[in-house]
Amino acid sequence: MGGSSRQFTPRIRPIRSLDESRTPSSPPKSSIEVPKFVDGKWELELPLAQRLYQKSGIGMFQKSKYTINHFELVFCFWYRHVPLPKSFNFEDLIEKHPSLSYEIVIYDVLRNGGNILVPQENLQSREFVLPEDTWGAYWERSMKWQSDVPLGALRWVHSSDIVDWKNLIEWANSCFELGFEALLVVIDGEMDVTSYKIEQLDPQGSHASIHSLDEDSKSELQQQIKHLRKTREGWYLASQKHAWPLPSFGVSHLSGLFFSNEEVEFLQEPADEEKTGKKSLYTDLVLRGLMLRPGFKFGCCWRAYSAPMEDEHAPYLIPDIEFLPYNFESLCLSLRLSEGVNKAWAYPYLHADEEWKYITISRWNSS
Predict the structure, then answer these.
(1) Could you read off the pLDDT of 107-138 as tens digits, one per residue?
(2) CB-based burial of residue 247 (10 Å sphere; 0-12 exposed, 13-18 middle, 19+ buried)?
(3) pLDDT reported for residue 1
(4) What are the extents of the domains in the chain?
(5) What interhelical angle do 70-79 and 100-112 show, nearest 10?
């Protein structure tokens, strides 16, 4: 059978021609001087330079000269009526600067979303420090970019790039420690841009722990697990005389309970909630009061419930740390799936103190 019969209008993707302006506003009555290429930058004259810098955070003043880089020049051609010099040879420039085409598009998209975006190279004289591997900083339009600390730091990648998880987490944590939002911008082969916000996450649940059981319930639990029978992929416990004391463990089916290997391992040797040092990921999640169920249908290791299944859907999807997304295409696929089912994609990692920490990555809309 063919595709959907739904009627909808496809989204028109911009072409972004280098031959014409993209602004509907009329040009100024007096002509704007053509920028001059000096020492790898484009020089603009006052008063336009002052206005671009103060109002929009475009370019930089250095030794009483105002300069803009290549992608700022294209943006000013599109939206500020600045003429594109004949010496601006895009074919030659992308040979020397292979990332220029992506930077032009990212700068355009983020700026038109209502933010003041300033590349890191223009912020060297500011007092704040940005994390390593940061491409730029951004302010909301209502903020005073010349005096206010940025709202966030930004780095960009191509969708085909391999995910360096260690580096990405270190960068995000540096952003958090410095008080910045962490924004990851992904551009694909169609020059489409998708932005993601990386945030710290502290998943918690209300499910009873084995340590919260009274002594009689603990004794009953230990008696019942002696009757476990091995199955191909886990364990089975037939219905017993007394009710199973820990509802967050085991899947009820076929007149009994089915347990995963991780569940049985934990029940036989439960970790101490107060114990410090390295725990397994499963143990950490369980001790947070979460109930774990298979995440196969959602392309992850577990879906994690904060409350009983009959009361809420699982708010978290936990990926398998042994099979994390390889590149940003596969990562974006996982994130899109999780958001499509209204769940947070919770990435777990071991912190330097050997405690499990979590971040979540979600779509960010600048408009």
Answers:
(1) 999 999 889 999 999 999 899 999 999 999 99
(2) middle
(3) 45
(4) 31-98, 114-201, 210-271, 273-360
(5) 50
CATH topology of domain 114-201: Trna Endonuclease; Chain: A, domain 1 (3.40.1350)
Give the amino acid at 348.
P
Average pLDDT over residues 85-92: 96
Query: Cα-atom radius of gyration of the chain, to the nearest Å?
Result: 27
Assign 273 a pLDDT band (cuts: 50, 70, 90): low
pLDDT, tens only, 314-344: 999 999 999 999 999 999 999 999 999 999 9
Per the CB < 8 A criterion, the answer to whether 225 and 206 are in contact is: no
- Reduced to 3 states (helix: H, G, I; strand: E, B; else coil), residue 166 is helix
Nearest to 50 by CA among 40, 60, 37, 63: 60
What is the DSSP track for 338-359?
Answer: HHHTT-EEEEEEE-TTS-EEEE
List Cβ neighbours of 154 (8 Å cut-off, separation of 6 or more). Answer: 110, 117, 134, 135, 136, 137, 138, 183, 184, 185
Q: Quick one: fold of 31-98?
A: MutS, DNA mismatch repair protein, domain I (3.40.1170)
Does the pTM exceed 0.85? yes
CATH of domain 273-360: 3.40.1350.10
Domains 31-98 and 273-360 share a fold: no
Q: What letter would DSSP give residue 162?
A: B
